[in-house]
Design goal:
This protein is α/β, with parallel strands linked by helices. 38% of the residues lie in helices and 18% in strands. Strands 6-2-1-7-8-10-9 form a 7-stranded mixed sheet, covered by helices on one side. The protein has a 3-stranded antiparallel sheet with strand order 3-5-4. A hairpin with a 7-residue loop joins strand 4 and strand 5. The longest helix is centred in the N-terminal third of the chain and has 15 residues. It starts with 10 loop residues before the first helix and ends with a strand.
């Protein structure tokens, strides 16, 4: 029998998922997100023909469907993003950070919650324009969600997703889709060869990623409690080169979370040399 199209989630069931996503990703899911969670996970109940969120919780907590836990994480961590979001950060990168960087020296940036890739490619466009395509720079993009990482690595977007993207970058660094891909654009290969994509859970010990001149950690910490924030920031600061920058979202702050990096202006922090 097919599952009810409008299964309601009980307070106890919602609390189970709150604890599970906190354990996996460090995300503190507010009580106000109950309807959102039910909406996003409801399709999985229908997929498995389940009649309650409790049944689905037992399924993702068991070994019977090993890939389903990742599917659940993907559904609960996917967030909106767009090219040149919070544009002042990219201006600072170009006008201050890159202006001070020695010519032809390697430059590495990490987009630590890259979602569907718009931030990765925005950073790449700025580096390509400022340092040149032949310079040794790299943008690393990571996310806990394998679904959004696949989209980012593909680098294919619909033209209605160009919000914030200057036409000059669209013409120089993107390829217009034709025939079956009409209405879309793809990031050019000469940009993509400067990028790499990795699944990283910021709530766990980090893999060996190398050191970075700049780390973008934007619009992520709003989902963490204070203790998780401190742990995540400490892990990322360890990945900075001396003099490296950690940049957070416009509604976020590292005040009281870490005393190793120092504020240079709101949302922009630097590790002393």
């Amino acid at each position: 029998m097919a599952a009810n199209e409008n299964v309601e989630i009980s307070s106890a069931e919602f609390a189970q998922f709150q604890r599970l996503i906190y354990k996996i990703a460090g995300i503190s899911l507010a009580d106000s997100k109950r309807i959102l969670l039910a909406g996003r996970l409801g399709k999985r109940l229908r997929h498995f023909k389940l009649d309650s969120f409790g049944e689905y919780y037992r399924l993702v907590s068991s070994a019977s469907e090993p890939g389903e836990l990742q599917t659940m994480v993907d559904l609960l961590t996917t967030n909106e993003t767009y090219f040149f979001r919070e544009e002042a950060h990219f201006d600072y990168l170009k006008d201050v950070i890159l202006a001070d960087h020695p010519a032809h020296a390697p430059f590495n940036i990490w987009s630590a919650a890259s979602s569907t890739g718009e931030e990765i490619y925005t950073l790449s466009f700025v580096l390509a324009e400022t340092l040149g395509l032949e310079s040794p720079w790299q943008v690393t993009g990571s996310d806990i969600s394998t679904t959004v990482l696949a989209t980012a690595e593909r680098g294919l977007y619909w033209l209605d997703r160009t919000r914030g993207l200057p036409q000059s970058y669209l013409k120089r660094f993107c390829l217009k889709g034709v025939r079956s891909q009409e209405g879309s654009f793809m990031i050019a290969p000469e940009i993509k060869r400067h990028t790499r994509f990795l699944q990283v859970n910021l709530n766990q010990m980090l893999p060996k990623l190398g050191k970075f001149d700049v780390i973008f950690l934007r619009n992520v910490m709003i989902y963490f409690d204070a203790d998780t924030k401190r742990q995540v920031v400490a892990r990322l600061v360890e990945q900075l080169v001396p003099g490296g920058y950690l940049i957070v979202g416009h509604s976020e702050s590292l005040s009281g979370l870490n005393d190793q990096v120092k504020p240079v202006k709101p949302t922009i922090y630097r590790l002393p040399h």
